[in-house]
Amino acid sequence: MEARMFCYQCQETAGCKGCTVKGVCGKSPEVAAMQDLLVYATKGLSCVTTELRRKGLPVDSSTNHLVTMNLFSTITNANFDRDAIVARVRETLAEKDRLLAQVDDAAALSEAARWNGSSSEYDAKASTVGVLATENEDVRSLRELIIYGLKGLSAYTKHANALLKDDGEVDAFIQRALAATLDDSLSVDDLVSLTLETGKYGVSGMALLDAANTGAYGNPEITEVQLGVRNNPGILVSGHDLRDLEMLLEQTAGTGVDVYTHSEMLPAHYYPELKKHPHLAGNYGNAWWKQKEEFEKFNGPILMTTNCVVPPAASYQDRLWTTGATGVPGCRHIGGAYGEVKDFSALIEQAKTCAPPTELETGTIVGGFAHEQVFALADKIVGAVKSGAIRTFVVMAGCDGRMKSRSYYTEFAQRLPQDAVILTAGCAKYKYNKLDLGDIGGIPRVLDAGQCNDSYSLALIALKLKEIFGLEDINDLPLVFNIAWYEQKAVIVLLALLYLGVKNIHLGPTLPAFLSPNVANVLVENFGIAGIGTVDDDLELFFGEGA
Ligand code: FSO
Ligand code: SF4
C-alpha cells in the first residue's frame, strides 16, 4: 500500500518499522502531516532563538513555553486534533518571523528558520519535511533519537512550567539541540555527543519537575490507595499534570462529586497536599491502553491532562475532556495559560448528571516510595541488603502498552526470586502492582516511586545506595535494569540513565524502530544496552542458578 505518512516514534509502530498508512495509535495521515510540519516550524523557531542567544539577546519564557508545548503536542497519544495543530503551526511561524526580524543575517540561517507559508501550503510543505527527509539512516536515527528525547523533556518541562517553575538552561538546550538536527555539517560523532548531552539535560529537567512537584505538594509518602468506588458521581483524571488535578480538586470540593485518578495520575495520591482532599476517592482502572473499556464503565466525565489518550468510542466521547497539550476532535478542550486558574465548571456540572462509577475491583495498593520516603527507610533497607534478606533491586520502570508480549513483565515480576525488590515508576507498574508480591521484613517487594518522570527518584535512590555502600560505580550496586518503553518520555528517561552512567539496561518489549543497526551498535558497545529474551533466559541471566 502506498505510504501516506511516516512515523516510527513509539514502541507500537506498525511491524516494528513505521506507521505508513495510519498510526496504530489512531493518528491519521492528515494529523501526522501537521505534526511533522509543527516539529519543522519549531526547529525553525529554535534556530532563530539559538542565534539570538548567541548574540546575547534575550528570549522570552513565553517563546520557550511555545517550543515545549509544540513538542509535547506531537508525543504519541497526545493530540489527534488537526485544527489545534494547524493553529500551533501558525502561531509558531508568526513568532519565528517576529524574532527573525531581530537577526541581522537571516539568510545565513537554515531553511526552516526562513520558511513561512499560508495554511493552504501546509500539506505540501509537510510532505517534504518529515522523518524521511533525512536520507542517511544513521543521521536520521540519531536526529530522531535526540528529537524524541527532547519531546519527553518538553513534557516534563511543561509540567514544571504549569507550577510556575522554569529552567532557562534546559529551554535553551532544547532549542539548541532542535536547531542542531537541521545542521547537515554535524557528523555522526557530533550527534552521538548531542544525544548524551540530551540525557544530561534530561536529568536537569526531571530534577526541575521533582522540585516543582515536591515544592507544591510535599514529598510523596507511603500511601494506601483505594481501588474501589464510592456512591457519588465522579470525575476521572488521567495523564500526568498534577496542577490540573489540584485545580479540579479545589473546584469540586463540597460539590458532592468525587475525583478518581487513572493510569499515570495514580501517584497523585502519594503527595500530602493532594491526598488531603477527602473527595480524592481512589484510583480507577489500569494503564492507559485499557481506557476504552474503563472509561465506558466510569459513567462520569474524564479529564485527559496529557497523553496517553486513545481516540474515544462514540458512547463516551461526550464525557471525554482534554486540556493542556492534549486534543481529540469532537471532545471539549479546557484552555488556560500557566498561572491562570482553569475553569472546570462545565465538566463538574456534567459530572452531577452522571451515575456513580461502576466498580471494577476492590482493595488497595501501596505506593509513595519516592526519594525522601526511601531515604527515611534507608537504615532498614541497607540492613536488609547487608543481612542478605534483599539480594537485588530490579528497576522495572517505564510504560505499559497493548502488545501481548508485555505479559513478559507480569511473568518476570511473578517469578523473580523472593529476595528481589522491584523499583518502579511510570505506567509499567500496572503489569505487576496488583499481584500481591508481598514484602521483605516490612519493605514491599514493589516500591512505586511515582510517574515516569519519577524515574529521577529511582536514580537518586541508586546514587544514595552507592554512597552508603561506599561504591565507586553505580553499576557495582545489586541493581539490574529491565525497563519497558512505549513513547518518547521513556526515551528521555533512558538517555538520562545513560548520562548518569547506568550500564546494561535491558529495554523491551522490542528495541526502538528508530535505532538504525549502527546506532543500536553504538548503544550496545558503549552502554551494554540489550533487548529482552524469554522470562526463563532473563531470570537466568540476572540471577543465575535457575532462579
Ligand atoms: Fe505511560 Fe503514556 Fe508516563 Fe508515557 S501513560 S506511556 S512513557 O504517556 O508517560 O508512563
Ligand atoms: Fe505509529 Fe506510534 Fe507514530 Fe502512532 S506514535 S503513528 S503508533 S509510530
Protein architecture, described:
By secondary structure, the protein is of the alpha/beta class. It folds into three domains: 14-216, Substrate Binding Domain Of Dnak, Chain:A, Domain 2; 223-352, Rossmann fold, CATH 3.40.50; 371-543, Rossmann fold (3-Layer(aba) Sandwich), CATH 3.40.50.2030. It is 44% helix and 10% strand. It has helices at 29-54, 61-73, 82-100, 111-114, 122-126, 137-162, 168-180, 188-217, 242-252, 272-275, 291-298, 314-317, 345-352, 371-376, 378-387, 407-415, 455-468, 488-499, 517-527, 535-543; strands at 223-226, 234-238, 258-261, 280-283, 302-304, 320-323, 332-334, 364-367, 392-395, 420-424, 439-440, 443-444, 446-448, 479-484, 506-508. The strands form four sheets. A six-stranded parallel beta sheet has the order 4-3-2-5-6-7. The chain has a five-stranded parallel beta sheet with strand order 13-10-9-14-15. Helix 2 (61-73) packs antiparallel against helix 3 (82-100), helix 6 runs parallel beside helix 8 (188-217) and helix 16 (407-415) packs across helix 20 (535-543). The protein is globular, with a radius of gyration of 23 Å. It starts with 28 loop residues before the first helix and ends with a helix. 52% of the residues are buried. The mean pLDDT is 97. Iron/sulfur/oxygen hybrid cluster is lined by residues 240, 263-264, 288, 307-308, 399, 426-427, 451-452, 486-487, 489-490.
